[in-house]
Specification:
By secondary structure, the protein is mainly alpha-helical. It has three helices and two strands. Strand 1 and strand 2 form a beta hairpin. The protein is elongated, with a radius of gyration of 16 Å.
Amino acid sequence: MTIVEFLLARIGEDLEYWRTMTDDPLMGTIANRYLDEAEAKVRVISEHPVAAAGAGQPYCERCCESEDSEGGEPYPCMTLRALGLVYEGHADYLEEWRP
């Protein structure tokens, strides 16, 4: 499982949970905020696609730049790693993703 697959699965679980709360008079506003946050996370993830490096390490193709890689920050970039910290207690979280 890649960090992107992991993140999208966790975000999907979050969405499923918070969608059930939108009709609750006490939780509706909070649920809508978390739904918006989940959408924002998906947008951030989509801005950090992995690019295959010729003989080197894959790198973050679009947003992240680093002088020591072919075109961007080594993958997974710090942005994706930071998003993953929210889910570090999950059984599928890999320690290698820790920033």
